[in-house]
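Researcher: Here's a chain I'd like modeled. Treat it as a single chain, no partners, no ligands.
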Amino acid sequence: MPDMNQGFDMFSFMSSIFPLFFILVFGIIIFTIIKGIAQWSHNNRQPVLTVDAKVISKRTSVRGGGETRARSIYFVTFEVESGDRMELQVNGQEFGQLAEGDTGDLQFQGTRYLGFTRKKVNAF
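Model: Modeled as a single isolated chain. C-alpha cells:
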C-alpha cells in the first residue's frame, strides 16, 4: 500500500493557503475603508474655496457590469486662474449640466466638489 505522507498533499496545501488569501482580501478591504475615512477627514479640515475656473474636460468611469450592476462615476477637470488643473468627482446631474469650455465660480473643499456657478456670456 502506498504511503499517503509522501509527495504533494493538495489538501494540506489549500488549508494553509486559504487563510492567507482570506487575510489578504480582508486587509485590502480594511485598507480601502481607512483610506476613505482619511480622505474624508482631510477634506473636512480644508477651507471651502471659491475660485474662477474653466471646465477643461469630462470623463466617466464605469465600475461593475457583467454579473453585477454597472455604476458610472463622473469626473470633471477644471482649470483655475493660476493654470493649475484639478479633477473632481461630480454627480450625474452636475456632469450633464457642465460643458467643456464653461467658465464660472468653482466651489470645493479639498478634493470634494461643492458646486459650479456658470458665468453668463454676453450674447449679441
